[in-house]
Prior knowledge:
Blueprint (H helix, E strand, L loop, with lengths): L3 E6 L16 H17 L4 E6 L30 E4 L10 H7 L4 E7 L1 H14 L4 E9 L3 E3 L2 E3 L1 H15 L2 E3 L1 H8 L1
Helix pairs in contact: 3-4
Amino acid sequence: MKKQGLIVVDLQKEYLSTGKLPLSGIEAATDNAARVIADARSRDIPVFHIRHESASGDAPVFVPGSDGVDIQPAVAPFGNEPVIVKSHINPFRETDLKQQLDAHGVEEVVVAGAMSHMCVDAVVRAAVDMGYPVTVLHDACATLDLSFDGVTVPAAHVHAAMMAAFEFGYGTVKSTRDYLSDAD
């Protein structure tokens, strides 16, 4: 079996109902991510926390130094778990995420986090492009309603479309329950 690494993407306070960019289903996704993190820690699977901060202080969300950029307590880093701070959608861009994965001997990645259609999408596609097999935990990810050309797309549909795309051409998509039962 290849050595896994768990990438937890942007599960920050900004996405909670009290934040500036609340996501549909963020509480359930965070609860599932917390279960997967606990399992990873118990099996010595390295956990990599991604935290978004806007490049400038005048951004509407993820303002450096604000409470919104803090990682939610339920999924907070522990001990020496790396926290990769990014200012781009792709967590590999202008960060040391790849070097961190390599330093920990990671050969395949498991992904949880937010938002399904943005940073989760970017990390999945970039990881596959770099040769990592990827498993996405669909119920440990969340997103929001989107609009295009006068049409509102419900968050559940946005999320389902992303998971379908991942499963179609990028990797494995599993529920938290199935992932954890496979680990037993």
